[in-house]
Amino acid sequence: MRFITRKDLGWPPSAAPSQSVPVEGFKIHYEGTPVPVVEHSKCAGRWTAIRNSHLANTKEGYSDVAYNWAVCNHGVIFEGRGWGKQTGANGSQALNRPVNAILWMGGTSGVTVPSGAAVESIKELIQYLRLKGAGKYIGGHRDGFSTSCPGDAMYSLVKSGKLEPKDDEMDPVDVWAYKGTDEKSDAYAYLRNTRWEIDEMQEKLDTLTTLVKQLLNK
Predict the structure, then answer these.
(1) Beta-strand (E) ranges in the chain?
(2) Most buried residue, 79, 100, 124, 189, by most Cβ within 10 Å?
(3) CA–CA distance from 111 to each of 35, 72, 103, 154, 168 (Å)?
(4) 112 torsion bin: left (phi>0), alpha (psi -120 to 50), beta (else)
(5) What is the pLDDT of residues 9-60, one digit of tens each?
(6) Can you tell me whether residue 7 is helix, strand or coil?
């Protein structure tokens, strides 16, 4: 699970209101506009642009990007309001209070079909948030609100249960990294750095093994 935090993005802490009721589950969204097919290096900038557009929306008066989380079609998860903050994306206060909002970064043209990587990351994100206490509900934005969101392709996955994680969906190392270290840290960076440390130790071990063989052959 590749996870980009607000800190990674250079964003300040979210000013959104705190979650006031238990999280019953998730509403899945899409952008609802054309989304060009781009390389992943452009996705963080697009996510920041979405936040900036929400903050500039004086009619809605958003305190932050409306969504709790976003997943690009490359399968990378971006923190939005994050856990413990009420979403502003579902259409009304009544719909916002009980669920987290997950944005799939697809739209009406260009990126219109969720990739396998995006689907797997959404499932892993849901499983992770269930470990933190979220409930079992998974719905689309259009459930209970008049909208085409999250698009027919994504909505079909919602209704068919294809976003429902399996019990063993999360890698135990991912779970340990998120639950066993500072929640504000980037768990993916933590795992990546651990991988580098293991590689470095392996190189030292290989060097030592070579030296021992040389000594034994003398």
Answers:
(1) 2-4, 25-29, 69-71, 76-79, 99-104, 137-140
(2) 100
(3) 6, 10, 13, 11, 29
(4) alpha
(5) 999 999 999 988 999 999 999 999 999 999 999 999 999 999 999 999 988 8
(6) helix
